[in-house]
Known about the structure:
The chain is α/β, with parallel strands linked by helices and 351 residues long. It folds into two domains: 1-108 and 252-351, 3-Layer(aba) Sandwich (Isopropylmalate Dehydrogenase); 113-119 and 133-250, Isopropylmalate Dehydrogenase (3-Layer(aba) Sandwich).
Amino acid sequence: MHYRIAVIPGDGIGKEVIPASLKVLDAVGRKCGFELAYVPFDYSCEYYKATGSMMPKDGIERLSDSDAIFLGAVGYPGVPDHISLWGLLIPIRRSFQQYVNIRPVRLLKGVESPLRNPGIIDFMIVRENNEGEYSNVGGIIHQGTPYETVIQESVFTRMGVDRVMNYAFELASKRKGKLASATKSNGIIHTMTFWDNRFEELGKKYPNIEQSKYHIDILCAQFVQHPDWFDVVVASNLFGDILSDLGPAVVGGLGIAPGANINPEKAFPSMFEPVHGSAPDIAGKNIANPMASFWTAAMMLEHLGEDHAAEILMLAIEGVTGQRKILTRDLGGTATTTEVTEEIIRQIEQL
């Protein structure tokens, strides 16, 4: 098999962990008998500083013939975060109908949780990725005066809510059969009540799924106190974004947190990006943890149908973390990005 991968290293440590991941992908491809062709794109905040936009006008079209998109991180000193989000990430996610954002939360072998007795932690956050609270509907009036007024609207559609919830129910049916919904319908009476109603209605089709709902504030507390309770958690765009950082924090940090923006129907390319940011404070020092990017690469392989390759890559990742000998400093080690990469490749070749 041959796959065409659009590669967007982005900014900061993205320029280190993505090239490292391509070496790892090539190693697992050689072992499993498939090839990956990488097409580089320089879309980034640095591109914005040079041109005034995050990508060219035909940037989406250039990505459209890819089998998948592999993104590092975007963020650069002097460029506001909303510029990179609305100039690059949201256009890709929405143009390609990547309406499911998946964030695995799992305590890997050898990785220490900041929790005292974490138990077995292995759940998936399914975040609605195309609408919800991330809307540009709204505006400002009387700007710069004492009467300045700001309005920001949330947009929830039945189609948008139903499709992400159906995905979450199906995912739960293939895992441990438990689905929790994040809500805040006691305070946000329109959108979140609608969210609750759709969850209850769609849940009728899945009588074998253990269904629960949590207000977002107590859900955050339970992620810390009882992370072993959860299997699949479905959440709106904003709540899912928050939970997607909190979840990895209880299993060792963002340095090992993968992520994927999925078009389940595969009508468009899906985009795979680790959860961590561009981390400009450590960029260029060869100390960034590439594990999140490697795990993200494994998610990409699984999406492409290369399940065996994804399994091998995950075994290699846990082989390295389990030995606790070659880890970057965020995991308590002293290894460089290069050293971790070389060890992962060695493990792949030995498996």
